[in-house]
Design brief:
Blueprint (H helix, E strand, L loop, with lengths): L5 E12 L2 E12 L3 E6 L5 H8 L7 E6 L2 E2 L5 H8 L2 E4 L11 H12 L4 H14 L15 H13 L5 E5 L7 H18 L2 E5 L3 H7 L2 E6 L2 E6 L1 H5 L4 H9 L2
Parallel strand pairs: 3-8, 3-9, 6-7, 7-8
Antiparallel strand pairs: 1-2, 1-4, 4-5, 9-10
The structure holds adenosine-5'-triphosphate and magnesium ion.
Magnesium ion binds next to helix 1.
Amino acid sequence: MQKNSILIDVQNVWKAFDDNEVLKGITMQVHDGSSDVILGRSGIGKSVLLKSIVGLLHPERGSIHVMGEQVIGMKNRDLNRLRKSIGYVFQYAALYDSLNVRENLEFPLRKHTDADEEEITDRVLEQLRLVGLEHAIDKMPSELSGGMKKRIGLARAIIKRPSIVLYDEPTAGLDPITAREISELILSLEEQFGITSITVTHDLECARIIANHIYILDDGVFQHHGGYEELKASDDPYTRAFFQVAV
Ligand SMILES: Nc1ncnc2c1ncn2[C@@H]1O[C@H](COP(=O)(O)OP(=O)(O)OP(=O)(O)O)[C@@H](O)[C@H]1O
Ligand SMILES: [Mg+2]
């Protein structure tokens, strides 16, 4: 893959649920190595867009190319293959409650790779070290704090070394200090592993820390986009409303 090539290319995508038009011709291009952030009100379609990019939802119109492959209309077998290269941090910490931390981390490796038992053990330990939670290896999700669950969610999303990671509100529900630690962890993991990402967040501090580029979603399309400082200085009332929440 060429440097600066487009890894995620969303063109004129439309998605409705009955008469609820959510995405109305949305377009976005994420370059290799970039960390792009989406801001937008609750219920505006941010999660719908992420789910469409991994083929969990099926837009009616438009095209979504991920690493050059068209996702819309893709067969399940091909989707499963493509998803090996994509990590997804779900909005609601989607750890398996009946599995302990070790088993939660092993899951994607067993599902998506041919790693043998020794490699699996090594990789799980390495991931836990990266997120600072080696001591939690035998804990059940119910024994973890919200911040610990988010860290394990990150570890699980990147354990198979994906090229792309989609984060849906990775700092939601955390105190500002823990939220900042998670944002810095995301940044450091992305730099370490050369990850290209899209992050949906309401946390402007997170956007400031991780974003190369920020998109503002409203009424089914990106109304504005740009760098953090550029958008912060914007005259647009909706954009201003977002940035004023932060101060
Ligand atoms: N599977 C579904 N079936 C029907 N409607 C859906 C489905 N998923 C999402 N929607 C609708 O699509 C709209 C956008 O939802 P989405 O979850 O993308 O919002 P969001 O921007 O992620 O909000 P939040 O910030 O609260 O997470 C909402 O009106 C929601 O009810
Ligand atoms: Mg959402």
